[in-house]
Amino acid sequence: MARVLSGIQPSGNLTLGNYIGAMRNFVKLQHEHECYFMVVDLHAVTVPQEPEALREQSEAVAALFLAAGIDPLKANIFLQSHVPAHAELGWLMTTLVYMGELERMTQFKDKAAGKEAVGAGLFTYPALMAADILLYEADLVPVGDDQKQHLEITRDLAQRFNHRFGDCLKIPQPYIPEVGARIMSLDDATKKMSKSNPVAGSYIAMLDSPDVIRKKISRAVTDSGREVKYDPATKPEISNLIGIFAQCANIGVAEVEERFAGLGYGPFKKELAEQVVAVLEPIQQRYKEIRESGEIYDVLSKGAFNASQTANRTLTEVKRRMGFLLPPGQ
Ligand code: AMP
Ligand code: TRP
After folding, report:
1. Of 37, 89, 91, 238, which residue is least crowded by CB atoms under 10 Å?
2. 182 CB less than 6 Å from ligand 1?
3. Residue 127: φ, ψ to 5°
4. 212 and 141, same structural domain?
5. Which CATH number does the domain housing residue 61 bear?
6. Considering 28, 170, 191, 195, which one is annotated as catalytic?
7. Residue 147, CB half-sphere, CA atoms under 13 Å: how many?
8. Is 316 within a domain?
């Protein structure tokens, strides 16, 4: 049984990209592995957040984990800020990482571009993410394609630590879907689908109503031509939609092409909308019930308790190896 850890930021609405790129794999992995899934609220505050919105979104994302099918009896669901070891190991990782490594991170470059004032936390973000993963001795980290670089820096930091202080930290592997690791924006296939895009028509939120989903998909930009053919290099827009279809219907892209051979974009988009609705509607229904029941508080408190046990063991070992004088009894 491997250890699995991943996190999602509670900032804005989660999108179909989050679901296909990451969350679906959380649900799949929980059956075979020891899993830790967290709402990374400490990462969310690397850009300004309204306190009330942060609280609401943190609860919403945790409830969505459950609604998407993560079973709290199988996996640990918790908030990053409920386990103080993250902030503490995050600091220690900040002392190990090099400025040059952080400067190369494309997520930092994208998020900092054009901003006058950029918080230092946005820059040191990967050190905290490395801590998140290393605390649990995770073998597998299910993420979308955009997190690959952060996983590489995590592996480098673990190796650097082990080299300097003796073998202790596990080197994690990314776990990235073959199709759907990068769901693109509905209005521009050169951009990743993102909850922070101000154009609502560019993404499908996991909580968009069926009618909104249908409308957004009918308006999604398509390449010229009319053939439903998967070829990301020359037909990026339709290929993105085919990828979404394949993931939602649980079939291969070749099968999608076959099903719509000679039919054109119109019928394809109509059926795509129904496939997306069929995936998201039951999640939305469960989400509503979970929010109303208040069960999430109990889940989060158990999750934080279990997570702390694992995380504190690693943190103590790291501190011992680095030469911190530990309190008596540790
Ligand atoms: P974030 O919303 O940035 O916290 O991302 C949470 C997870 O969703 C990460 O594993 C991301 O890689 C994944 N993700 C976010 N956007 C997309 C997308 N457009 N396509 C695929 N995966 C995504
Ligand atoms: N950086 C990730 C993102 O923006 C979120 C994240 C934080 C994460 N800590 C993590 C993902 C640990 C996987 C493992 O999507």
Report:
1. 91
2. yes
3. -70, -40
4. no
5. 3.40.50.620
6. 195
7. 26
8. yes
Q: Say which CATH number the domain at 249 has.
A: 1.10.240.10
Q: Which of 111, 170, 191, 319 is catalytic?
A: 111
pLDDT mean for each 10 residues of the chain (330 residues): 97 93 96 98 96 97 98 98 98 98 96 92 98 98 97 98 98 93 95 92 97 98 93 95 97 97 95 98 98 97 98 98 93
Whether residue 147 is contained in a domain is answered as yes
78, 134: one domain: yes
191 belongs to the catalytic site: no
Ligand 2 in reach of 143 Cβ (< 6 A): yes
Residues 6+ apart with CB under 8 A from 67: 283, 284, 286, 287, 290
Tell me which residue of 104, 110, 179 sits closest to 145, measured CA to CA.
179
What pLDDT score was predicted for residue 11? Answer: 87
> Which letter does DSSP use for residue 201 in this model?
G
Is 148 tagged catalytic? no
Report the separation in Å between the CA atom of 6 and the middle of ligand 2, taken as the mean of its atom positions: 6
* Rounded Cα gap, residues 196 and 241, in angstroms: 20
Q: How many domains does the chain have?
A: 2
Residue 262: predicted pLDDT: 93
Amino acid identity, residue 291? R
Q: Does the pTM exceed 0.85? A: yes
Whether residues 308 and 283 share a domain: the answer is no
